[in-house]
Structure prediction request, 373 residues.
Amino acid sequence: MRAAVLRAAAVPAPYAGSRPLSLEMVPVPEPRPGELLVRIARASLCHSDLSVINGSRIRPLPMALGHEATGVVEHVGDGVDDVRAGDHVVLVFVPSCGSCRACSAGRPALCYPGAESNGSGDLLHGPAVLRTPDGNRINHHLGVSAFADYAVVARESVVVIDDDVPFDIAAMFGCAALTGIGAVLNTAALREGQSVVVFGLGAVGLMAVMAAAQVPGTTVIAIDPLPAKQDMARRCGAHHAGAPDDAARLVGEATDGGADVVLEAVGSARVLEAGLQLLARGGALVSVGLPHPDQEITTQALQFAGMGRRLLGSYMGDAVPERDIPAYLDLWRQGVLPVELLHTDTRPIEDLNESLDALAEGRVVRRIFTLDK
Prediction:
């Protein structure tokens, strides 16, 4: 099978010239007990993939990238009795064990064994199964490695969906939808009549805009330096949109004393600091983007106890995938979440390297790749 493998990180832009991902032929791995073999139908390019390539997220190499995808189950390993060959599935980038401290508290996105296996490039139920033809290990990306014809994943890394959901739609629900929608509905728990500011209008930020707009009586303010992204946010339901320099003015005009929620989907410490200043008393700043580990924030400590403001981290939107993916797909079916607006185009997997620049420069929202030969 083909797999897009990264062998050197901290690759600078432009990416097309350096071609950091090599499409390699590797043996199709066999699922072990508790695992599945999935034929990948569509895989999306996400900023989290780019963060591994540019060195912002440190991962063990070589690694087969790709974590947002959908496909069809080809084969199930021993002990898997609730998923069958032929089932359509969305892949999820945090496999939850179901019994650790986080899972027991109802927060599977923070699963301890899932985080450990993701960080080491392994799978939840054992070591990496990807190999080069001569037997050398290739690490898994977030338990998925979806830029490939097939993926062996833990049963806990998939959610079964209805067969009639188009692959180009389903592909966006394993990361962008869970993260953006979940940040609004789960982490922030946005309530009727509240105001929300979304910084960063990539797929995650635009999913957050859609989710906020469907809560009755909300005021949604979308911020991004690119006019095209601002226009897209308005199509997704934002009431106001502008550049970062416009943020304070827009919040002042649209709210009474600041926003109830500010959601940061950029991955920037400076944006987090700016967002904190836009909050109303008692407001919540939700950190969704993944800044480089070297970035730090500096702020007046009194903002929290003195003004009742909260800083909330949101990983994978605090989602419960088995619950949330079907629920979000239902909202899409009802026309409440028009996620098809975010689908820029579908390209063959051979276009991956050229697409890295388009994503980094904001020229695409969700470019989806087909693995059809």
Notes: The chain has 13 helices and 17 strands. The chain has a mean pLDDT of 97. The CA atoms of residues 285 and 311 lie 5 Å apart.
